[in-house]
Amino acid sequence: MGKTSAGFWTVLGVMLLGGCAHQSQVKVDNSEQPYRIGREDVLDIAVWRDAELSRTLPVRPDGYISMPMVGEVHAAGKTPTELADSLKEAFQPYVQEPRVTVIVREVNSSRVFVTGEVANPGAYPLRGRVSLLQAIALAGGFTDFANSDGIVVIRTDSKGGQIPVRYSDLISPDGGHEVMLRPGDTVVVP
């Protein structure tokens, strides 16, 4: 075996071992929940072989959609598959063997609000996992008058409450933990 062959095998071995080591450290996060339709989302509803029943429509603020023949159908809080099953059942008396597909065209319900002493206060879409630091960056960062160690996250979910956060803790190298935002959270920067 010449120098070139030995070098090739050494490099290949290192690459394989490096790949194996990398793969063994990968953690799969199976905790993701299926997407739940929210108010103001826009849905594509397709009824197979029935173009008159197929449509694109928003979920109203009360959580309902209006469909021909079946009227008002509650959509908010359901997965697209659950809504498709509900519509299939509702169409059963009117359509022979209905096949319904629901696709979320626009996600408008998942938002966080950033207010106070940031450059651009307002509502920001929550696409995937968004941290408090990322939301502050989306809002343009702090103004000159911000009290960055007096941040409060107001949570509106079932547990509710307020989460006081110090920016200096978030960026400290010795253990500040990041706050992950949830739909409906309001970040107040005094």
Number of DSSP helical runs: 4
Shape: elongated
Q: What's the average pLDDT? A: 83
- Going by CATH, the homologous superfamily of the largest domain would be Outer membrane lipoprotein wza domain like
Question: Can you give the helix content as a percent range?
Answer: 10-25%
Strand order of the largest sheet: 7-6-10-8-9
- What Rg, in angstroms, do the CA atoms define? 25 Å
Note the beta-strand portion.
15-25%
Q: Give the low-confidence spans.
A: 10-31
Distance between the termini: 70 Å
Q: H/E series, N to C?
A: HEEEEHEEEHEEHE
Give me the CATH architecture of the largest domain, please: Roll
CATH topology descriptor of the largest domain = Outer membrane lipoprotein wza fold like
- The CATH class designation of the largest domain is Alpha Beta
Q: Major β-sheet, in short?
A: 5 strands, mixed
* Global structural class: alpha+beta
Per DSSP E runs of 2 or more residues, the count of β-strands stands at 10
Number of domains: 2
Task: Give an overview of the whole structure.
- There is one protein chain.
- The chain has 190 residues and is an alpha+beta fold.
- It has two domains: 42-106, wza like fold (2-Layer Sandwich); 111-189, Outer membrane lipoprotein wza fold like (Roll).
- Helices cover 24% and strands 25% of the residues.
- It has four helices and ten strands.
- The strands form three sheets. A five-stranded mixed β-sheet has the order 7-6-10-8-9.
- Residues 30-104 form the Polysaccharide export protein N-terminal domain.
- One of its GO terms (molecular function) is polysaccharide transmembrane transporter activity.
- InterPro entries: Poly_export (IPR049712), Poly_export_N (IPR003715), Soluble_ligand-bd (IPR019554).
- Pfam families: Poly_export, SLBB.
